[in-house]
Design goal:
heterodimer, A: 111 residues, mainly beta, five-stranded antiparallel sheet, B: 113 residues, four-stranded antiparallel sheet, 0% helix
């Protein structure tokens, strides 16, 4: 069974610090990796996608992928209270239409 | 702006009374998905349409059905809602196999009383 694992948290980070969120996946054939942000009572919003090994930066967000270790992470620099949300990791194997979802990590940024 | 729109935003229905949730999109994506999400859980895929081809997940209850009359619209029908069906229902779209990710609507929060 294909799985995506995340620490459920909550992860508490002081405002202005770096928040580090981690995700592991079981399917070695996975090709596309996504981080979605979900505020309470809202729908998921795509914030980062990554397809090849290494780092991808977009503003305060950096996604890191290591296919050999089957590991993907999200770094949020200069964390703001508005970053407080649940972050969902999702993986697409490309062999079917499904995204395999982690259960999410709840991030709390303390002012 | 191109988007995915779900209506209604909140729906209250009586136990056992059929209810329909709707989703429309202006992205011209050929794949549409329905997810169920309960509190603190990952979204659970119910079914998806690739163009007109319907794909049901093996563990989706028969109580849930879907219709896609055209590219832009997709409906979720719950024939006899139970208390356990109370959840957020999310519609999402993607182009082809979703290699570039999914776009979600704002969701419909279903309450069963």
């Amino acid at each position: 069974q294909k799985e995506v694992e995340q620490n459920s948290g909550p992860l508490s980070v002081p405002e202005g610090a770096i928040a580090s969120l981690n995700c592991t996946y079981s399917d070695r054939g996975s090709q596309s990796f996504f981080w979605y942000r979900q505020y309470s009572g809202k729908s998921p919003e795509l914030i980062m996608s990554i397809y090849s090994n290494g780092d991808k930066e977009d503003g305060r967000f950096t996604a890191q992928l290591n296919k050999a270790s089957q590991y993907v992470s999200l770094l949020i620099r200069d964390s703001q209270p508005s970053d407080s949300a649940t972050y969902l990791c999702a993986v697409n194997s490309g062999s079917n239409y499904q995204l395999i979802w982690g259960a999410g990590t709840k991030l709390i940024i303390k002012p | 702006d191109a988007m995915v729109i779900q209506n209604p935003r909140y729906q209250v229905t009586q136990f056992g009374k059929p209810v329909t949730l709707s989703c429309s999109q202006t992205l011209n994506h050929n794949v549409m998905y329905w997810y169920q999400q309960k509190s603190s859980q990952a979204p659970k895929l119910l079914f998806h349409y690739y163009d007109k081809d319907f794909n049901n997940e093996a563990d989706t209850p028969d109580n849930f059905q879907s219709r896609r009359p055209n590219t832009s619209f997709c409906f979720l029908d719950i024939r006899s809602p139970g208390l356990g069906d109370a959840a957020m229902y999310l519609c999402a779209t993607s182009r082809d196999r979703g290699v570039r990710g999914y776009t979600f609507g704002s969701g419909t929060r279903l309450t069963v009383v």
